[in-house]
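Researcher: Following up on the earlier apo prediction. This time include the ligand. It's flavin-adenine dinucleotide, with the SMILES given after the sequence.
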Amino acid sequence: MTTPVHFTHNGRPVSLFTEAGESLLSLLRLKLGDQTPKYGCGQGGCGACSVRIDGQLRLACLTLAETVDGAEVETVAALSAPNLDPLQEAFMDHFAAQCGYCTPGMIVAARTLLDTNPRPSRDEVIEAISGNLCRCTGYEPIIDAILAVAAQEVSA
Amino acid sequence: MPIEITRTDDPGLAARLIANDRGAYVMGGGTGLMRRIHEGDQAVRHLILLSGPRLRQIAPERGGFFIGAQASMADVLAAPEARALHQPAASVGAPALRNMATVGGNLFARPPYGDLTTALLALDAEAVTASGSGEDRRPLALLLEDRTTRRLVLGVFVPDQGGARLHYTKMTRSHPRGASIVTVAASLARSGGRVTMARVAFGGLAGAPFRASGVERALTGGPLGSETIATAAERIGDGITPMSDALASGWYRLEMAKIHLRRLLGTAQGSPS
Ligand SMILES: Cc1cc2nc3c(=O)[nH]c(=O)nc-3n(C[C@H](O)[C@H](O)[C@H](O)COP(=O)(O)OP(=O)(O)OC[C@H]3O[C@@H](n4cnc5c(N)ncnc54)[C@H](O)[C@@H]3O)c2cc1C
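Model: Understood. Below is the ligand-bound prediction.
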């Protein structure tokens, strides 16, 4: 059974067919070709597929594709056009990415935090990325990068 | 086998579908159901996407407040009426998960999950279920015990707590957030230095969250002294089989439950009511 869904993908209206039981992640990666949200565990445990739906942080792998009908879906690709998001710059400056697999999810989670809480404490940053696993960096460079952007955006 | 999907705003239809077909599931946030689908669980054959304003409502109702089954943990955290549930809701998953995970889904989450439900049991919450074209209420504990009838939950009703206070703690292996090794929720009322009412529930310990009546009896009637607390902790294992999984053995879970109940009630000792 296929069902049509219409939604906004990074500001662009899209319409396509979804198979019953298909996840938003599969729709984005395989049907729309947006490979920025990553397939990590497929169980909501790693956060590599984090996206925003109507501005709220969500896990694309656990989102039934049909439920985004009419919604605004945003992946990290939306943040880097035309210029890189300051978070992306800061991740490079702070060596907050090694293999890079967790980075898109980390950036979406961090951007969602800073949009609602421009001056987070270190603990609030840790809480905000607590659903995103990184197996390379040990998290410290990631936390530093997010705090650096917060300091820069608040003083700007 | 392909999955069938039904969209409806008729609770009566959803209730009939799940009552008559064990392969039919009402969808909350999908954090449990989508996981099962990804794992290839063939038991999930039919998803029911139910919508309606009451299902997401959080509002005062006579004698307490109502939380719709499809309210998310984030919705609970944003609702001042539901203040008693803020600490438990914040202990569920991480931010993205809390935006998705619903109160209704938490009632039927696979162990060791069910943290909010553990707190709801200690608050003596009632399950508001669909019955014909109307609503029915039953103690949440009864809903959780009855594994044979599949009911559509419209929401939960949390009664006013009077003088009772909820104490809550959750032990995890990973920090700041993770799955429960054991979750403890204790609601105590005290008067004249004595415990007049105790409702104590455990999650993560033995299948679905449950009320520990032996613990409650041991705590009620006397002062909240260290000896009483120690005696009560020894009653946690009565009539249960602690669960073992990749995170912890049943033996470890039970030992941790005793320690965390003692600590939690130890801090309650010093608090005003
Ligand atoms: C990475 C990860 C971390 C998690 N961490 C926690 C945690 O810390 N604590 C915790 O408690 N849980 C946790 N969970 C489990 C789960 O996310 C939550 O328990 C959540 O509340 C389940 O709600 P849902 O809406 O997503 O459920 P769904 O998957 O939509 O549904 C779960 C079950 O409930 C049934 N159901 C849903 N709504 C109704 C209704 N209205 N009437 C009748 N039946 C209904 C469904 O049919 C299904 O059987 C975690 C899950 C993941 C993937």
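Model: Strands of chain A lie at 2-9, 12-19, 50-53, 56-59, 72-74.
Researcher: Noted. I'll compare it with the apo version next.
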